Amino acid sequence: MNRLVDQLLRVARLDSVALDTSQTVDLTAVAEREISTLAPFALRKDCDIVLEHTGTPVMIKGNADAVGDALRNVIENAIVYGPPGGEVMVAVTTCGVIRIADRGPGIPVNQREQVFERFWRPRGERRTGAGLGLAIVHDIMTAHGDTVTIEDNPGGGAVFVLDFGKQAPP
C-alpha cells in the first residue's frame, strides 16, 4: 500500500509541477546509489545486480532524484520479473545511456508501448502492482526531453534503454 501511495504521489507531482532538469547529474553516481539501495531487495529475491561503467562520471543536465526514481523502477521490475538466481546488468555508457538488462520473460514487441501507459497490466498478470512504475519512468524521461525504449536481450529477457545521450558531453 505504501508503494502504491508513493507512486500515485509521484504521478501527481509529474503531472502538476514542472520538473527542474537544470541540475548537473552524474549518471554513474545515481546508478551506484540506486543499486546500493536495491541490493537487500535483490538479495531476498536471489538476484545479483551488476554495474558496468568506465569508472568516470557521466554528466548530464537533469534532476538527480527523478533519474534515480526512473532507474529504481526499472531495476525493481527486472528483479521481480527475472528468474531466481538471475542477474540484472546495469550499464552506464559515456554517451549518457543507461541499459538495464534482465533474464526475465521479455516484453513482446506489440506490448512495448503499452507497458508505459498508466495502470496497464498484461492480461492474466498475477504479480502485484498497479501498473504505474513504467509510466513514471516514461514521464520522467519525457520531462528530461529524453527517451526510454525496450529491446530484446539476446540471451533472453528485456533491455530497457534510458537514453540521456543528447545531454551527455561529446
Question: What's the helix and strand layout?
Answer:
Blueprint: H1 2-16, E1 23-26, H2 27-44, E2 48-52, E3 59-62, H3 64-81, E4 87-92, E5 97-101, H4 133-143, E6 147-152, E7 158-163
Parallel strand pairs: 2-4
Antiparallel strand pairs: 1-3, 4-5, 5-7, 6-7
Helix pairs in contact: 1-4, 2-3, 3-4
Your description of this structure?
There is one protein chain. The protein is an alpha+beta fold. It has a single domain (2-163), classed as Heat Shock Protein 90 (2-Layer Sandwich), CATH 3.30.565.10. The chain contains four helices and seven strands; from the N terminus they run αβαββαββαββ. It has helices spanning 2-16, 27-44, 64-81, 133-143; strands spanning 23-26, 48-52, 59-62, 87-92, 97-101, 147-152, 158-163. A five-stranded mixed β-sheet has the order 2-4-5-7-6. A two-stranded antiparallel ribbon has the order 1-3. Helix 1 (2-16) runs parallel beside helix 4 (133-143). The model has no long low-confidence stretch (mean pLDDT 85).
